[in-house]
Every structure is written in C-alpha cells, then in structure tokens.
Amino acid sequence: MPPATSASTRCRNTRRCATPATRPGSSSLSRGCDGLRAGLALAAALLAWHATAGAGPVRRALLVGVNDYAAARVPDLRGAVNDVRMMQRILSSRFGFAERDIVLLTDAAATRGAVLAAIDQLVRATQPGDIVYFHYSGHGSQVRDLNGEEDDGLDETILPRDARLPGVPDITDDELDRRFARLRNDSTLLVFDSCHSGTITRGTGNLLARFVPPDERLELYRTRGGTTRDVVTAERLPHVVMAGAPADEEALDGPVNESWYGLFTWALAQALESLPAGSPASVVHAATQRELDQLARKLYMRPPPPQLEGPAEALQRPVFGAPVPTAGRTWLPVVAEGDRLLRMVGGLDLNAQPGSQWAIYAADAERFEFGRALAVGIVEGLDGRDALLRRQFGSQPVPAGARAVALAPPVTGDLAVRIESPPGARLDTMISELRRGLPALQVVAAGEPARFVIRFDGASWRVLDLGGLHEVLSVSDTTGTGAVVETLLRTLTSALRATALLALDNAAADFAVEVRIPDLAASELPAFRMRQPDAPRTRENSLVLEVASPIDAYLTIVSVDTEGRLNLLFPNDHQRPGFLPDGLVRAGQPERIPDALAPGNAAGFYWDYGPPAGRDTIRVFAARDLETARVIRGFVSQAAGDASQLPALRDSLASRAVRGIQLVADTAAPQPAPALGWAATSIVIEIRP
C-alpha cells in the first residue's frame, strides 16, 4: 500500500465520546462507547451487503474517516470526516452507488475491529463484476517491518480511532494487502488520504500532517503479520491505488471555503465532479492534479502531487466501471419552508457554508443546465448538517423533491494573518498602520488559522504561506517601519483581491477552459523578470498565454498584480480588429494571446512585466454567449477602481443561472434557446527583478 494523500492545516477538536478524564490510558469507558457505535455501524454494513449479494453487479463502497482519536498522544484532525461524507454524496448522486451499499465508518465507529471486519465483509460480499471503492482519511504512520519485505525496513500503517491505546496496534499494509488480494472483481479503487512520513507539525502551528511517529510496540505486531507477506504484487492485481502524497512528503488538512478537508480528497472530489462518469483512472488523476493546482493558488501554498499506482490496463478503465444513468452533478434535496426560505438537506456534506450560492432545479433534473434553474439561493445559516437558503433570484415555486447543485463558493471579505514578533510599541504601531491601510485585515493569535504568517527573524520581515512551507516575501528591517508596512500592505492587498477574483467560480460549469504558458512544464511555477525599456521581448520578460476551450467561447482575461490592482488584459483597446474579435475562440483550437513577441504581431499588443517584484494572479473567463462576457468585462472595468464590485459581479452571474422570459421572433421552425454558461481557470506568476 503506497503512502497516502493530500495536504492542509488543522486545529485540535476536543470533543470526545467519553469525558476527557477517561481518554488517556484508562480507555475502558471510551472503548465501551466506541464498541457500541462501531457494532451498530458494522451490523448495518453486514445487513446491507448481505441483502445485495448475488443480485447482479453491485457498486460497493467502504468509507473510513477519523478526526477524533482516542489516544491522547495522537493529534486530532478536522477534515477527515468531511472527506468521506462528501465522497458518500458524490458516489450516490453521480456514480450509481445505492445508499444501502455505501458503508460509512467515522470517528467512534471506526475502531480497528470495525474497520477490519467491514473490509472482510466487503471482500466476502463482492462478486465478479462488482465495483469496489475504499477510501481512508486519517492519520498514517509506520512500524518496523518484521518479515523483511519492505526496502526501507518499515511497514506503512493507517490509524483507526482506537490506535495507540494499550494493546491496540495500527492497521498495517500487510493486513490490508492480504484482505484486498482476495477480492474477486476486476474494478477496485483504493484511496488513502494519509501519509507515512513527516514532522507532524509545521513551524507555523497552522498545519498538522496526517502522520504520527512510528509505533515502537513491536510485540503487538509479531503475532499479526505472519512470516511472509502473503500477497501478490500490485502489477498482478486489478486494483488502482490513489494517494495524496509521495512517500517523502506529507498529506495535510486545511481550510477550503470556510471548512476543513484533506486537500487531496477535495481535489479528487472536484475532479470526479467535473469529468464524464466513464473517465479512466489516469484521466481522474490528471484532473485531480489540476484541481490541486487551482486550490494551491487560492491558499498560497503548494500541496504535494497526488500518486497513482496500478496495472497499466487498469489505469485506462473507468474508475467506477461502465457509466450508469445518473445525474450529471452531485445534488442535495431541497425543501421549501416559506416563500423565500429553503432547507438544503445535508448541506454540510457538500460544504454549503454561509455565503455560498446554489442553483435549484426540478425534482427530475439530471443535466442541471445553466440558465434553466428555478431559483438561486444563498446560504444564510446552518441547522445541524442542513443549510438554510434565502432565495436570491427566481420566483417560480420550488416543488417537492427539488434538487440543489453548487453554484459559487462564499466570498470572504477578511484576510487573517498572524504576526510573530517580540511585543512592544513598534509592533503595536505596525499592526495599527496595517489595519489602517487594509481594514479587512484580521490579526489572529497563535493556533488560529491564518492565510499568512508574518515572521520577524531579527533582520527581516518574512511573509510565509498558509503552512509556513514557502516564503512569499521578505523585507529587510533596515528599510524602516514605514517602508516595511508599505511593502506588506501591497502584498496583503493583492492577496485579498486575488482571493475575491478566484471566488468568481462557476461550480455548475459544464465545460472547462485550459490555460498554460507555452514551452513551460505544467509542474513548474511560472516566473518572469522585469523587462527593461530597450531590452528585446523574450519568454522571460513578456507573457504569452495559450488558451483552449472545448466549445466556442468568448474570453475575458483579468489580472490582480503585485500592487493589488485589477487589470482587464483581454480584450483591450490595443488589439487589432482581426485578432480574435470579441474575444471569440473556436472549439478545440488553442490560441496564443498575444500570438507572438516579434514586432508587428497580429495581436497588436504585448504583456510586458515591470516593477515591483511579487506575484500576479491571472483569471481566464470563458463564456458561451457574448452577453455574459460583456457583463464580466463591465464589472471588471468598474472594479479596477473599486474592488468591492467583485461580489456584485458574482451575484450578476448567478442571476443568469435562472430561467427567464426570452423574446424570440416568430419563425416557421422553432429556434433553440441560446446556450448560456461560463467557466474560469487561473494561473499565478512570480515576477522577479
């Protein structure tokens, strides 16, 4: 079993099944409560899988997520349970998994005994032709290899809820391999969102790896592993394994749209949501990497690359077998509770946070076409796991059984930072000046989530990313307090506006636009140098983008520069009339913008880079219709002087998702309604002196 998955930041969750006094060491009360819950969950699993055994090909899933660990020395997580609840909704809505065939084991129910028993029952129930999905989100670790099968001398492990309590070992890769090797089907996807090496905590206190130190209690493992591994190699098994991090990197938890997830699981979910139902594992893996790249730009950090293993033939098969008739998007049921108030059942399963927007469709909707919604609502609050929506647009009645799909994430108007510096009058002055220049700035205490950490090391002020993994900016203290504050304000203002720009996203998009920098590997961070006035234009000092769309689309390209200014890059007043009129690109025809850096190019303009050094965020919008493109361009032009216009643009675009009266000419043959909808993608560029 390879090391596992994703990246992000966590705070401790102090809720317990038993009182805190029962947690350390004396676990009888805690384990008794765990055992009852685990037994009930497992009984449900056995009944469900027995009921469907022999009834033809069945799609079966076992989802395990652990936030709340019983042993005091195992740090709690915050996103693991969110991971598996989200995957449960996706599997049932989009991929034909019946709810009775999805077994969810979380926290107290996810004990060692319950997890292994559920896997055993899954293996027994699975018949040839069945589809199997196993997902684990939680801590990973290692233990000394006692059978000599591992090159590094260590077995990888996953930690159930009661791991590291007296007498309770981790679950080793040997134990998992022996069980999954007995599966008789040809389509199995195993996903691990954990890691098996790391430092546990990052320097900022913001990030907590999904890893705990190796278990030294070898006596617990000598009677469990056997003398041989008793498992065939991965190349001979039909299974596909996906994990969120290479063996030498950490899988992390972190905030995504105001909640917590494993970054790998979040990206995998978005990839599955955006792809056709029959996509093979190799395509899902590539799409997951793209989603991680997008997430990295929002969080100002670099998650580790996701991993994919399995036989070459299996990697080209659909991850969930042949497609079955299902909805084109993951949806949630909606109940009307008045003229303007709607209840979205299980909203938190899909991260329906306050401020997010959702499109409401009829009960039998499956395609969820943009422009055909009955209404658009914004989440105003939560009631348990349900989300309460206030209708924003659309006046049609919401019928029984209506369905809601995500439209846009919430827009936050605040920017949380933590400042690590010796206290004193100078620090107080700096904080006061930063708040004066950026009222949205929130200075948080140690241990609270922060988008950036500003750390004074005695010689310079360093701006670090979410996890303290990478340096965004360094300012010498010798420049003086005023210059330091001014430089910090530029960076923070740019980040805040870039966040607002990236929040302009259409989760209901039915196509994806792609952007890249020609001749640059996708894994590289684009970096440019400032062009001097008389220097020739090159790929190092003047930007060229290659944009491709699977449909005819009208492009709008916007940037937030290092100074925090919002700029409409394309279309612009300098382009020649014959160069992509109205910003239109044709389906399947990649276009370079501008077309060349040589004098006299067809575009009529260039994108040169000048001071100051820093980071630019570029957002590419692609609209099916010209009117939507013009709405985007008009708001961007206004927001160039007033960035507060960006949330208004989000509302304007959301309103276009709703059905409306269309004026059409009387013709002999009915004309199809114009196709609506838009998609967006982004790229971040470093500007160096």
Class from helix and strand fractions: alpha+beta
Indicate the proportion of strand residues.
15-25%
What kind of oligomer do you see? Answer: single chain
Report the C-alpha radius of gyration, rounded.
26 Å
Strand count: 33
| CATH topology category name of the largest domain | Rossmann fold
State the strand order across the main sheet: 2-1-3-7-8-11
CATH class label of the largest domain: Alpha Beta
User: Which residue ranges are poorly predicted, with pLDDT under 50 across at least 5 consecutive positions?
Assistant: 1-35, 197-205, 225-235, 660-674
Q: What is the helix content?
A: 10-25%
How many domains make up the coordinates? Answer: 4
Question: What's the number of helices?
Answer: 12
Main sheet: strands, sense, barrel? 6 strands, mixed
Task: Describe, in plain words, how this protein is organized in 3D.
With 689 residues, the chain is an alpha+beta fold. The protein folds into 4 domains: 20-315, 3-Layer(aba) Sandwich (Rossmann fold); 332-408, Thrombin, subunit H (Beta Barrel), CATH 2.40.10; 415-502, Rossmann fold (3-Layer(aba) Sandwich), CATH 3.40.50; 514-688, no CATH class. Helices cover 23% and strands 25% of the residues. The protein is built from 12 helices and 33 strands. The two termini are 45 Å apart. The model is unreliable at 1-35, 197-205, 225-235 and 660-674 (pLDDT under 50).
